[in-house]
Amino acid sequence: MPTYSAPDGTQLAYHPYGEGDPVVCVPGGPADSRYLGDLGGLSAHRRLIVLDTRGTGRSAIPEDPSSYRCDRLVEDVEALREHLGLPRMDLLGHSGGANIATQYAARYPRNIGKLALIGPGTRAVGMAVSGETRRELALSRRNEPWFPPAFAALEAIIDGSGTDWEAISPFFYGRWDTAARQHHAASRPSNEAAVTGFAAEGAFDAEATRSDLADCETPVLLLTGEFDVNSPPQQTAEFAALFCDATLVVQPAAGHYPWLDDADRFVATTAAFLE
Questions:
Q1: Mapping DSSP to helix (H, G, I), strand (E, B) and coil, where does residue 221 land?
Q2: Which residues contact 270 (CB under 8 A, 6 or more apart)?
Q3: Rounded to an integer, what distance in angstroms lies between the CA atom of residue 135 and that of residue 152?
Q4: Overall CATH class of domain 3-126+192-274
Q5: pLDDT grade, residue 186 (50/70/90)?
């Protein structure tokens, strides 16, 4: 397992998959990057360089807890580009990792070729998903056998009376089958300090990021699932409008992990964009 040194000396790990031109991949969470796998077989088209963000997976826990902040994690990505010797790199971010990738594109536009944001988080640009948007999307799945308890838990979270995040897990998948259950069990964040520190005060300057993105000419793919309550299609479309050269794709019958719900469709779309 290769490692490199972050700007503050923290040793960070990354996982290479496949052959060809590299794509640096930033996971969400912050969680162990193993949940990404090889993104449904995308490694057959490009060499994936999957980062373990600090304090997750095989990467070291930093001495300074404030370095878990999203804006500071951008520099870990830049250090990885330098370590790999890439004049420019293609970058992929999933979920919360899309916030890191978005801030990277705003800060280092000349160092990035193409940007793929999958089920993207939108904190970096100051967009919040309303409870009503999540509720309407969830209701589209009312015929699922698991729906009643999951929807009740979601309603409680939206109105602030509940915190049973485990109960709403089925909403994050296109199919709540054995594969989805196994994936979910292996995808939970394990470093509470990393999760808490990610969005600490100062982590986001949405106005500055939006301003910088307005001048960013990087081609961007924003891909989300039809059923993704974390990154709803409506919100992702609004996010896409902030970029000069954006392609919006809503993958049918997919949730927050589209490479798991329909690997062939996800890989075809993402590989075509990256090519």
A1: strand
A2: 39, 42, 92, 116, 118, 221, 223
A3: 10
A4: alpha beta
A5: confident
Taking a C-beta distance cutoff of 8 angstroms, is the pair 29, 189 a contact?
Answer: yes
Any residues with CB less than 8 A from the CB of 81 and at least 6 apart, and which?
A: 24, 89, 111
pLDDT tens, position by position, 201-250:
999 999 999 999 988 899 999 999 999 999 999 999 999 999 999 999 99
Residue 30: is the preceding peptide bond cis (ω within 30°)?
A: yes
The residue count of the chain comes to: 275
73-119 pLDDT per residue, tens? 999 999 999 999 999 999 999 999 999 999 999 999 999 999 999 99
Give the span between the Cα atoms of 134 and 180, in whole angstroms: 20
Tell how strand 11-17 and strand 3-5 pair up. Answer: antiparallel
Say how far apart CA 196 and CA 31 lie, in whole Å. 12
Residue with tokens 């801030």: 103
The closest alpha carbon to 234, from 168, 135, 92, belongs to 135
Helix ranges (H only) for the chain are 70-84, 97-107, 131-139, 147-159, 178-185, 192-198, 206-214, 233-240, 258-261, 263-274
pLDDT band, very low/low/confident/very high, at 11 (cuts 50, 70, 90): very high
Q: Which neighbouring-strand residues pair with 92?
A: 25, 116
**What b/e readout covers 17-53, taking b as 16+ CB neighbours within 10 angstroms?**
bbeeebbbbbbbbbbbbebbbbbbbbbebbebbbbbb
SS3 state at 62? coil
